[in-house]
Amino acid sequence: MFITYLRRELVNRRKQTIIIAVGMALAIALVIIVNSVAAGVKDAQTSVLGSVYGVGTDITVSKAAAAPGADGTGGPGQRFDFGADAGSTTDGSTAVATSRLTAGMGTSTFDATALDTVTAENGVSEAAGVLTLTNTTFDGELPDFSQMPQGAAPGEAAEGTAPTGGADGAGGSSFNVDSFTVLGLDPAASAVGPLSAVTLTDGRTLASGDTGTFVAVLDSAYATTAELAVGGTIDIGGTSFEIVGLVESSSGDASTASNVYIPLDVAQSLSGEDGMISSIYVQAASADDIASLKTSLESALPDNTVSTQSDLASSVSGSLSTASTLVGNLGTWLSVIVLAAAFLIAILFTISGVTRRTREFGTLKAIGWSNRRIVGQVAGESLVQGLIGGVAGIAIGLVGVVVVNLVAPTLSATASTQTAGGLAAPDGAAAGGPGMGGGGFGQAAQAATTSDVVLNAPVTVSVIVIAVGLAVVGGLLAGAIGGWRASRLRPAEALRAVA
Questions:
Q1: Please, are residues 290 and 284 in contact by the beta-carbon 8 Å criterion?
Q2: Are the CB atoms for 5 and 380 separated by under 8 Å?
Q3: Fewest CB atoms less than 10 Å from the CB: which of 91, 205, 378, 482?
């Protein structure tokens, strides 16, 4: 009897069935697309963060950068100092070529013993300390200031004396300032940290035996730009390093964390940051332990900043951040509103159908049907209508996800970390003199890892399960309310309808 009535109502009331199914299908399709795009955005953020902090890094420990001059030293426009014997003077001009490796003003380092504190915490699987630096190279010619009258500006020679110095003999300056990022890390700690997120393209990566040696691994893109290759050398902090390998980001879409990677102890020694690090990358033993581990580390290291992947994701800027906000806010609320509208439509049409079937339900009650049986009949019909809408919604949603993946929108993402700030002049540009603008040498700067990430919206089993669950809930809700309305009918109403 149940199946007979069910089939009859679905066939005889096609319009009601189609409207309810279409409304449910559109709502469920939207939920699937929004959830898939949200998962794709999250994967893209993880990819960008992985290129900077390394695959498997759940927590980072750092120290807030001090304000310029907060410790009584430095300040805006910090100078690039030269030693008394720097360069060689010829024909009234001094040729200078010097390189400096420094953490720079505004980048806070802290004692490496914090790494021991981190590894001693329960729930820590792996931990590695790194030192983020910037190598700034000054190369060019300066005028011989000894030939200038006291108080004269560069280019003003003494009376009766031809101006000398400078590349053009006009008494000016001609020089280039170049900088690149350097990351010092423990060669033995490869399970976590930036090198865990790279793919070797040539040569070899750093090994445990490289501790204390002057070897370097370069980012492939930087090596191409700088015309460097494996087997060659690179000057870092005035010291020649052998290039032993080239790497690129494993994700393919994101950049690596640094231009150059060298052993941590060598980086500390050359930069004068002995026994210091700038960040600790932590891998938790279990994803469920991340929140509690963060709390424990904050208690153990109260002067440091402890951030999880979720915290770091909020620092990712660019169109990827905009997409995340759009999906997280507008997409979620839109899904809720459409679902509510679909449920409301199903409920109203079910109640309307029950009202039109007053004589039918009244007669059934007169011949002995119980309220429970009538509610079950109406609920069963609504459940099937909801499931039809659910199947159609899953199909439409999957098509929508396929379209998104075929379009493959490219999002830009920038993950910034505070680093030393050398002032880099554009290629081929000559600075106008020692007192350069732009903030001065050695000031803090944002080392930004910028990537173009192709959005890929995955479809997971959980999304399908959610879609089916929504279809069932919508059908049962409409059926329960409609069935309750039908159970309130009395046999007398059916007799009046017949009369």
A1: yes
A2: no
A3: 91
Q: Which amino acid makes up residue 420?
A: A
CB 422 within 8 A of CB 443: no
What pTM, to 2 d.p., does this model score? 0.59
How far apart (Å, rounded) are the C-alpha atoms in residues 32 and 321?
21
Q: What is the pLDDT along the chain (499 residues), one digit of tens a residue?
A: 667 767 776 777 778 788 888 888 888 888 888 888 887 777 776 666 666 665 567 788 888 765 555 444 444 444 555 554 555 555 556 676 777 888 855 568 899 999 999 999 998 888 889 998 989 887 777 665 555 555 545 445 444 444 444 444 444 556 677 888 898 999 887 767 777 778 889 999 998 899 999 999 999 989 999 999 999 999 998 899 999 999 987 665 556 778 999 999 999 999 989 999 998 988 888 878 888 999 999 999 998 988 887 666 655 545 555 655 656 666 667 777 877 888 888 888 777 777 777 777 777 777 777 878 878 888 888 888 888 888 998 999 899 889 988 887 776 655 555 433 333 333 333 333 333 333 343 333 444 555 666 777 888 888 888 888 888 888 888 888 887 877 776 666 655 655 5
Count the residues in the chain. Answer: 499
Amino acid letter for position 284: A
What span, in angstroms and rounded, lies between the C-alpha atoms of 285 and 142? 56
DSSP 3-state of 277 = strand
Q: Which residues contact 429 (CB under 8 A, 6 or more apart)?
A: 176
Q: CA–CA separation, 235 vs 244, rounded Å?
A: 14
Beta-bridge partner residues of 17: none
Distance, in Å, from the CA atom of 261 to the CA atom of 213, rounded to the nearest integer, reads 12
**Rounded Cα distance, 124 and 191, in Å:** 13
Which residue is listed with tokens 């396929």? Answer: 402
Which single residue is written with the structure tokens 């199914």?
21
